[in-house]
Every structure is written in structure tokens, then in C-alpha cells.
Amino acid sequence: MIPFVFFNNKFDSLFExxxxxILLSAYKAENKHSKLPRLMHMHDDKAxxxxxxxGKGTHIIGTDTYATKKGDILIFNSGITHDECMHTDTAMSIxxxxxxxxxxxxxxxxxxxxxxxxxxxxxxxxxxxxxxxIRMMYNQAxxxxxxxxxxxxxxxxxxxxxxxxxxxxxxxxxxxxxxxxGQRVKDYIDKHYMEDLTLAGISEVVGANQYYLSHxxxxxxxxxxxxxLMRRRIGEAQSxxxxxxxxxxxxxxxxGYNNPNYFHKLFMRIVGMPPMRYRKLYFxxxxxxxxxxQ
Length: 294
Hints:
The strands form two sheets. This protein has a five-stranded antiparallel sheet with strand order 1-8-3-6-9. A four-stranded antiparallel sheet has the order 2-7-4-5. By secondary structure, the protein is an alpha+beta fold. Residues 284-294 have low confidence and may be disordered. Helix content is 39%, strand content 18%. The chain folds into two domains: 22-168, Regulatory protein AraC (Jelly Rolls), CATH 2.60.120.280; 180-287, Arc Repressor Mutant, subunit A. The protein has helices at 31-34, 127-139, 148-168, 180-192, 199-206, 210-221, 225-243, 248-254, 260-271, 275-281; strands spanning 22-29, 38-41, 47-54, 56-61, 64-69, 72-76, 82-86, 93-100, 120-122.
């Protein structure tokens, strides 16, 4: 006998009215893409999600470092800096998506997990369900017929509700950092990274000895202030390469490097390839944003 399951349809939706998420982009990354570091960056107008299908890595989300592994779901709320790096001794395979207009009740816009809650969620026994939903959503980007975008967005909504369910069972609160100096320096660099910043100048702004400041910040973020500034700039450059049509020279200037040659060498050293090659790697040939340097 096959049992029937009935639903009373009296659930209270997680979403505010007209607060359903809108899918912006999605991709599947295997070895050659996932081995590239994705440096410190943030988005004020969207949230992002990464599902690790295989492999392991290290992710900095906000001010905390996480050892990530197969089955983990990484949530990057809007306005939160994050930095991604795969372990060199293992191949990583991920699905990624970005979305906007997410409005959960009693939550900031484009926040999938509450502030101060752990942004890395284990899929556990729901691994297959999460992978299936995100794979189906990604596959809808390929046919591009009249139904694909609507179907992809409904799948995104289902995926987000499932992740909210998993998150409700994993509400580990992250204690606010007692070191307010480290947070003040981070906030200042995040706001002014495109300017000509120096350690002496930052120290003067926050009113602290630069050597003490550097020591405290490195303990706070695992990087010195100048290392964090460099990763922040290169991370924003990566975002502009993938999401804009600006030339390499314009991008260099926008992130704070007035010498394009220096920017090119720095990007090559940190990311492992020139900026234009990095841009081309993520687009089929006809989809590469046109720039004055092509």
C-alpha cells in the first residue's frame, strides 16, 4: 500500500511580501577555476552562496577563518567581506550563485543567515538534495528558452528555503570581537581601499601607534593592514573583471593603483595569471565584455 501525504498549506512564509530572491548569476567551477584564489571582496547589492561538491579549502568570511570541506554551504551576506582559497593538494569542485532582492522576515535585505550567526552550514544528510537543486538551477542557464529563467528562480527559492532549514539547526552565534581597534581599521580600509593609504595615515585616523595597530590587526584578521589592503584591492579588481566592461587600466585606477604595470605584476603574482586571461577564463569567447584593450 502506498501512503498518501497531505499538506494543509497553512505555513508561514519565510519571505516578506515581494521579497523573493532574484537569481543574478551561477557557475560550476572545477580544477582550473577553483584553484585560483578569490581575494577579499564584498557586495552591497547582492548575496552569494557556494556549495562545495568535492575538495577542501580555506575561507575568510567577515573576520573569521573557516576550514571548509565537501558538503559545506558557504553564505556571503551582502556587505560582508570574504576571501577564498583552495588547498593546493586537493581538487575542489563547487557550485556558485549570486542573487538579490532576498527579504526574509526580520532580517536585513540580502541576508540568508542572521548577523553574528555562523555562515558555513553543513549539508549533512541533505547533501544530495542541495546538490540536485543547485545543479538543476545551474543547468537552466544553458538552454536559455522562454521557461529557463523562471524555472531557475523557483529552484533558487526552494534551495534557499532548504538552506534556511539547515541553518535553523546550526545557529552557532559568533561572539562580537572585543578588539574594536581591529574592527575600526578593517572598516576604514573597506571604505577607503581605493585611496592612497599608508600605515602611518591609518594609524593617525584611528589614533593608535602604527606598530601596535599592525600587531593588533594581524591578530584580528590574520593579515597585516597593508596585506589586507592589497587583497582587498585585488579582490575588487577580480569582481570588476568579471562584472564590468571596464578596461584593465581603468580597473587598476578604480581599485587604487595608478600604475597599470605595477597592478598587472601584482595581479599576476597573487592570482597566478594576467588580468585579461583571468577575465577570459570565465567567459566563452563571444561573451567576454568588450574593452579598449581587446
